[in-house]
Amino acid sequence: MEFAELAREQLPRLYGLARQLVGEDAEDLVQECLLKAYRSHAELRDRQAAPAWLTRIMVNCARDRFRSRGRRVRESPLPDVEDFSLYRVIAAEDPFPYSDSLHLDFLHRFGPEDVWAVLRGLPEIYRLPLVLVHMHDVSTKQAARLLSVPLGTLLARLHRGRKQFEKDLWTYAREHDLLREIAREGT
Amino acid sequence: MIRCEDALRDLWGYLCDEVTPESRARIAEHLDACRRCCGEIAFLNELRRVVAEAEPELPADVGVRMEAFLATLEGSTDDRPDAQG
Q1: What is the CATH architecture of A78-186?
Q2: Could you say which of B8, B51, B79 has the minimum Cβ distance to residue A134?
Q3: What is the dotted CATH code of the domain comprising A3-68?
Q4: pLDDT tens-digit series, residues A40-64
Q5: What is the C-alpha R_g of chain B?
């Protein structure tokens, strides 16, 4: 199996994952991941397993970076998000009074860069599970193994992360004129 | 039947198949009767789709540098797996 060929196939996905994990340092992280993968790719027997194998190497590289920079993983309680519902906030605030598909209109104002920006604002402890499960189709069991946490911990972080993400989407929309712009179009 | 507030806490888990069978049955019963929570779960499903499609793209210049890096790896000897014994 040619390593370069395998890596080329995965490059766009790896870069996307790296951006979501470490932001502007993505290119360095991809290189680090490729170097480690190259050194050990003789161990990879099944080409079908290559995407998961590369994901594991990249997540480990990212976690090493977080640790080396002294970024402690804190289980912050994220107060006031447990019962937050973006759906209900949108219905209550009714930012687009002329819309007959209020909630979809809200979501469709978010381009990929907007979604990514909101995700980047989440603490790593919540962002990593969300990125792996919702953007890279990693199962919750696999994500728990990748992040070296019990499944229950992973599920709790996913739950809190999703709620905080919903809340942050609303804040982002207000701060970046996504609501006002639609209101203008509707008038 | 459970209340909306109770269903609300587990709608994501229901959608992503992360709840127990018992909890799943309770939420399903609630959804059969609650239009608002049905609307909410449809919204969360759309949000899930929007997130899944938000992966950053590989910029052309980064792709070129990565290709060069791969070529360097392929051309190197010290880092080759078989060179490490």
Answers
A1: Orthogonal Bundle (1.10)
A2: B51
A3: 1.10.1740.10
A4: 988 888 888 899 999 999 999 998 8
A5: 24
A16 Cα to chain B: minimum distance (Å): 5
Closest CA to A58 of A87, A31, A84: A31
Of B40, B47, B58, the CB nearest to A15: B58
For A134-163, what is the mean pLDDT? 93
For residue A74, pLDDT beyond 80: no
Angle at which helix A50-68 crosses helix A26-40, to 10 degrees, equals 120
- Interface contact A19, partner B, CB < 8 A: yes
Does residue A34 contact residue A7 with C-beta atoms inside 8 Å? yes
State pLDDT tens for residues A79-101: 678 889 999 999 999 888 888 89
